[in-house]
Amino acid sequence: MRFVKDSAKFACLFAVAGLLMLGGCTKVASPEQGASADSTLKQVLQRGTLRVGDCLTFAPFGFYNKDGQADGYDVDLAKELAKQMGVKLEVVNTTSANRIPNLQTSKVDVVFCNFTRNLERAKEIAFTNPYVVASEALLVKKSSGIKSINDMSNRTIATVKGSTNGDEVRSLNMQVKIQEFDSSQAAILAVKQGQADAMIEDNNFLAFQATLDPDLTVTNEALVPLEYNAFGVKAGDQVWLNYLNLFLFNINASKQNAQLYKKWFGTEPRFPLNPQY
């Protein structure tokens, strides 16, 4: 009986040893070899530079200040992100039309550019949680007599190429002419010079523009449901997306985002980031 017990014990020990040997031969993936290896997060940290695509013709979100430096609400957020990551910031001037192509071709790591989340765009890129909320209104001359979209029949509305604003105007099924421009500043100039009767854009942006020119005003209306603007990133990079969402959670919870909004827009955020349904 003792021999049988010893044999059983030996067999058991042999099996355990075999498992340990097998385990020793099994390669355990290091973080660099896991899903994070190809993440933009790791690339940014290794490179030491964060490349943020920002629309620098869209004050106060992004613009060039008197010293020729990138400045604005989105730029301040980008500076804070780079600071928390411990890397340098490179702001890449971006247009509405090339936001998605610049992400897909890795010319930028993330886009901060008044980027409205929608299902069509989500087929090509990924979005973080929202960081600012807006609706749509019209920028018009005070002398135009235009009080709302209902006064725009047979008139011209300026929009920016690559934005969702043209589609929103078309969805209203009104007899209006849509004229597209390469930048927001060009669309505003068209209104000032009489080439367009109004410009449709986020009310946050338009309210700021009206403060810069006493001849301009913004209609008091919400033309579309609330738009939740977010950071855009390349599709399929969950590690980078998770990091950015945590960054946004932290600056919202600390009220830092609200403070930056008030700095640039002169008022508290009008709409909540997390609405009740």
TrEMBL record:
InterPro entries: Bact_solute-bind_prot3, SBP_3_CS, Solute-binding_3/MltF_N. The keyword Signal applies. GO terms for biological process: amino acid transport. GO terms for cellular component: extracellular region; outer membrane-bounded periplasmic space. Coiled coil: none annotated. It comes from the Bacteria. Pfam families: SBP_bac_3 (PF00497). Keywords: Signal, Transport. Residues 1-29 form the signal peptide. Residues 49-268 form the Solute-binding protein family 3/N-terminal domain. The keyword Manganese does not apply. Belongs to the bacterial solute-binding protein 3 family. This is ABC transporter glutamine-binding protein GlnH. The gene is glnH_1.
